[in-house]
Specification:
With about 350 residues, the protein is of the alpha/beta class. Helix content is about 30%, strand content about 20%. The chain contains 11 helices and 16 strands. Strand 9 and strand 10 form a beta hairpin. Helix 1 crosses helix 6. The longest helix is centred in the C-terminal third of the chain and has 17 residues. The chain is globular. About 0% of the residues have low confidence.
Length: about 350
């Protein structure tokens, strides 16, 4: 299959191009499209056969449920059995935007989308191209991030092409996404609303609207350390967002340089290529790293470029990436969550 790339200017959308994409969705085929968080791989959410193609193309395990993207409350009503008061409050404040809400589903939503769960994840994106596509398709769009399973999420059309060229008919290219990390996922079907994946809408933001919110333990730990069986969202159990290189995450403040030196030595003595990603601006004396990059210490800036840097380092065949952590609060919680999921080792 030849993959076509359509460039669309997000501040001056060419309706004809979006109509072309919408037709592909209506026919039961896949379209990669930009959202404000990352690029998504979309299919008609009400067409089970189309949704199955997503799993096949991404090589995604079938027990990992997919988010359904909507453009109107009418579409929410079509797929959600009930909309609790908390959901209404959150939708009013944060939609359209990077917040995904888990609600009870109606039968119309195929089991393929929700991995046989009784719930469905719903999000109304704020990206004008995503909105136009959902609207013109006339159906909610099921879309995971448009990467091969386990790889870093795509923040540029080029990343989608790297992973899915020849496997899907169309990529809509509207430039880099603005946020760079996936949406916040909040479960509203548990007794206490539960944060399953932190994102741009932070825990602190949610607390301003909800009386009570809890963080699911999966958010803070490395994937391999947790008891997998007890999780509602099966997708949480896999190693995620990971480049091919070993990611080593530094969560310590003391003796940082010494510890970096030690890890560097382990790798470089075997002739391995190591990149060092720093978040605190300071002089770093060791010359053993093949590449040193300063990410900045603002979560917004790090989020925008981290997945892209992971991909770049893979292209350059780095064997290891040592990353300095940030404080796990505000949007920093999302950064640390993604780094922890990507890492093979955490240094405390
Ligand atoms: O920003 C985003 O959310 C992007 C863009 C494309 O919208 N999408 C995205 O999708 O990140 P994906 O499939 O890569 O991540 C969806 C997450 C997974 O961790 C999945 O397990 C969880 O949401 N999820 C989906 N449906 C669920 C459900 N019914 N219950 C619990 N977790 C669910
Ligand atoms: Mg994903």
């Amino acid at each position: 299959m030849k993959t076509k790339v359509l460039r669309v200017d997000k501040s001056n959308i060419d309706r004809k191009k979006i109509l072309y994409a919408a037709k592909i969705i209506k026919k039961g085929n896949l379209v990669a499209f930009p959202t404000e968080t990352v690029y998504g791989l979309g299919a008609d959410a009400l067409n089970a056969k189309a949704v199955r193609k997503i799993f096949k193309v991404k090589k995604r395990p079938i027990d990992d449920p997919i988010i359904v993207h909507v453009h109107s409350m009418e579409q929410v009503n079509k797929i959600a059995k009930e909309i609790p008061e908390n959901a209404i409050k959150l939708m009013k404040k944060f939609w359209p935007g990077p917040l995904t809400l888990i609600l009870r589903k109606k039968k119309i939503v195929p089991n393929e989308v929700t991995a046989n769960l009784e719930t469905v994840a719903i999000r109304m994106p704020s990206h004008p191209v995503a909105n136009a596509l959902i609207k013109l398709s006339g159906t909610p769009i099921a879309a995971p991030s448009a990467n091969l399973f386990g790889r870093p999420s795509p923040t540029k059309a080029q990343h989608v092409k790297e992973d899915l060229n020849g496997k899907i008919p169309l990529i809509i290219d509207a430039g880099s996404t603005t946020i760079g990390l996936e949406s916040t996922v909040l479960d509203l079907t548990s007794k206490v609303p539960t944060l399953l994946r932190p994102g741009k809408i932070t825990l602190e933001d949610l607390k301003k609207v909800l009386r009570d919110v809890q963080i699911h333990p999966v958010v803070k730990v490395r994937t391999s350390k947790i008891n997998l069986k007890k999780f509602k969202s099966p997708g949480m159990k896999y190693r995620h967002y990971a480049p091919k290189a070993d990611v080593i995450l530094l969560e310590c403040n003391k003796n940082l340089d010494k510890r970096i030196d030690k890890i560097l030595k382990e790798y470089t003595k075997k002739g391995k290529k190591v990149a060092l990603l720093l978040t605190k601006r300071r002089k770093y004396k060791n010359r053993n790293a093949t590449m040193v990059k300063f990410l900045g210490n603002k979560p917004e800036i790090i989020a925008k470029k981290i997945f892209s840097i992971f991909r770049e380092l893979d292209r350059k065949a780095f064997d290891a990436i040592i990353v300095e952590g940030v404080e796990a609060k505000g949007f920093g919680l999302a950064i640390m969550n993604r780094l922890r999921k990507a890492s093979v080792k955490i240094v405390n």
